[in-house]
């Protein structure tokens, strides 16, 4: 690298830091809002289709697996409270550029792809909610316009972004509470069959273990999101103190909601009907309270839910690029911070540009199977990352830092590796083979980008001001 590179590194070092604007309440709503989303609205019926009335079991198992990994994340984020999350931890633990780059790329892809799919769903729900008969091209333009709005909110500032998240979280939470309350009303009135919630039924003569694993692989997509919060560490007030309590509280709240939703859904609607419905929660409300205008409300509730997912995922992706640019794993230009707004504006623009390309691709064939298995593929990629994160905890035990941090113990990270790997491997997870095909293509693309990054001369060594310098 020449003088230009040195000057760029100095600019990154001297650039303004991110604004610490997230307190405990905003962080809790960020985590809850990121976990809650389109997954539970769409996957409840499919989970029930795998295990019958005991649909609540896979959600509990998914919560347990997520909690194990959350303990590992808590040790690492309180030990190294910087943006970049899993990629940063892999970089510190192994120092292998290709591993760091691929972790960064996988997490970024999962966020951007989910946000892109959510923006398309937002546009479709907008058209449905207002009764508009629009062409596929118009829906595409609405989706791109929506993503542009997300970019504007993101550039505006993390305070504004997280406050918008608060509003959207409350809206999507109200939809799930509506399902629970109407479900309880039906149960109390004798219009539901609680005995169904203990009936275990497995299709295709699967063993009980494989059926639960397959259903958990689906349900886990509804539990992901807590890991996004670690990418906001540099914008959180006193992260070493508040992260453990807030992350575990957020996971607990969402687990209770998911179990109650799945119990009410199976008690009110027969499993066969629920599994075949594309909008299972709407079917639950229509069955329990036929006169309730859910058909008019659901598109708008879903619209807010997917909008929240898009906003949070784009927040995560942009902070991930920013953090890794600070670590020299990506070009330093991606670490530029807006001097007035104190937001990583270059990373935001780049991730939005990628999302535009993905939205356009998805919109070319709305019925593509790629869209239908996006949730499973995202879950597959993130569970692979979680295996690495749990391993990083064990490797980094030898690294000492000069401040107090959370400790996950010795057993939890090991169990975390085993359980995450169980839900990744094809013989144990029962996943659709196409999920592995899509993941393979993404990894191949990541390797190509890694080779390009190496040719540009970025060796992945941490910048001097980043080594062992946690931001408090």
Describe this structure as you would to a colleague:
The protein has 472 residues and is mainly alpha-helical. The chain has a single domain (21-455), classed as Amino acid/polyamine transporter I, CATH 1.20.1740. The protein has 19 helices and no strands. It has helices spanning 3-14, 24-35, 38-51, 56-79, 85-94, 97-129, 136-156, 158-188, 208-219, 239-268, 271-276, 280-288, 294-326, 345-364, 369-372, 374-395, 411-422, 426-429, 433-455. The longest helix is centred in the N-terminal third of the chain and has 33 residues, at 97-129. The radius of gyration is 22 Å and the shape is globular. Mean pLDDT is 79; it is low at 1-13 and 462-472. It is a multi-pass membrane protein. This is APC family permease. The chain crosses the membrane at residues 26-43, 55-74, 94-117, 137-155, 167-188, 208-226, 246-271, 300-322, 343-364, 370-396, 408-426, 438-456. Keywords: Cell membrane, Membrane, Transmembrane, Transmembrane helix. InterPro entries: AA/rel_permease1, APC_superfamily.
């Amino acid at each position: 690298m020449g003088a230009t590179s040195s000057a760029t590194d100095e600019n990154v070092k001297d650039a303004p830091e991110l604004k610490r604007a997230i307190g405990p309440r905003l962080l809790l709503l960020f985590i809850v809002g990121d976990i809650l989303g389109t997954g539970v609205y769409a996957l409840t019926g499919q989970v029930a289709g795998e295990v019958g009335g005991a649909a609540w079991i896979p959600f509990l198992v998914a919560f347990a697996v997520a909690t194990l990994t959350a303990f590992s994340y808590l040790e690492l984020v309180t030990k190294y409270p910087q943006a970049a999350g899993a990629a940063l931890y892999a970089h510190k633990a192994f120092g292998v550029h290709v591993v760091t780059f691929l972790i960064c790329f996988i997490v970024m892809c999962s966020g951007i792809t989910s946000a892109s799919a959510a923006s398309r769903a937002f546009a479709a729900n907008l058209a449905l909610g207002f009764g508009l008969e629009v062409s596929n091209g118009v829906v595409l333009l609405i989706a791109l316009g929506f993503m542009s709005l997300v970019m504007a909110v993101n550039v505006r500032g993390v305070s504004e972004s997280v406050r918008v998240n608060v509003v959207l979280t409350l809206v999507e939470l109200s939809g799930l509470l509506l399902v629970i309350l109407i479900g309880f009303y039906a149960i109390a009135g004798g219009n539901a069959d609680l005995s169904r919630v203990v009936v275990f039924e497995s299709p295709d003569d699967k063993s009980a273990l494989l059926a639960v694993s397959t259903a958990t692989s689906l349900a886990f997509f509804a539990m992901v999101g807590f890991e996004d919060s670690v990418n906001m560490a540099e914008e959180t007030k006193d992260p070493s103190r508040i992260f453990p309590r807030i992350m575990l509280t957020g996971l607990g709240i969402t687990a209770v909601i998911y179990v109650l939703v799945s119990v009410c859904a199976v008690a009110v609607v027969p499993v066969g009907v629920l599994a075949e419905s594309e909008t299972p929660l709407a079917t639950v409300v229509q069955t329990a309270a036929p006169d309730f205008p859910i058909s008019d409300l659901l598109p708008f509730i879903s619209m807010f839910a997917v909008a929240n997912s898009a906003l949070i995922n784009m927040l995560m992706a942009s902070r991930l690029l920013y953090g890794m640019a600070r670590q020299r794993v990506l070009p330093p230009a991606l670490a530029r911070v807006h001097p007035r707004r104190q937001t990583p504006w270059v990373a935001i623009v780049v991730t939005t540009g990628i999302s535009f390309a993905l939205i356009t691709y998805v919109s070319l064939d709305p019925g593509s199977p790629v869209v239908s298995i996006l949730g499973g593929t995202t879950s597959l990629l993130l569970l692979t990352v979680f295996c690495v994160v749990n391993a990083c905890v064990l490797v980094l035990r030898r690294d000492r830092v000069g401040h107090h941090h959370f400790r996950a113990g010795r057993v939890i990270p090991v169990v975390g590796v085993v359980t995450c790997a169980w839900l990744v491997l094809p013989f144990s997870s029962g996943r659709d083979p196409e999920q592995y095909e899509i993941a393979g293509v993404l990894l191949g693309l990541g390797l190509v980008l890694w080779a390009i990054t190496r040719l540009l001369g970025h060796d992945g060594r941490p910048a001097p001001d980043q080594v062992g310098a946690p931001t408090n």
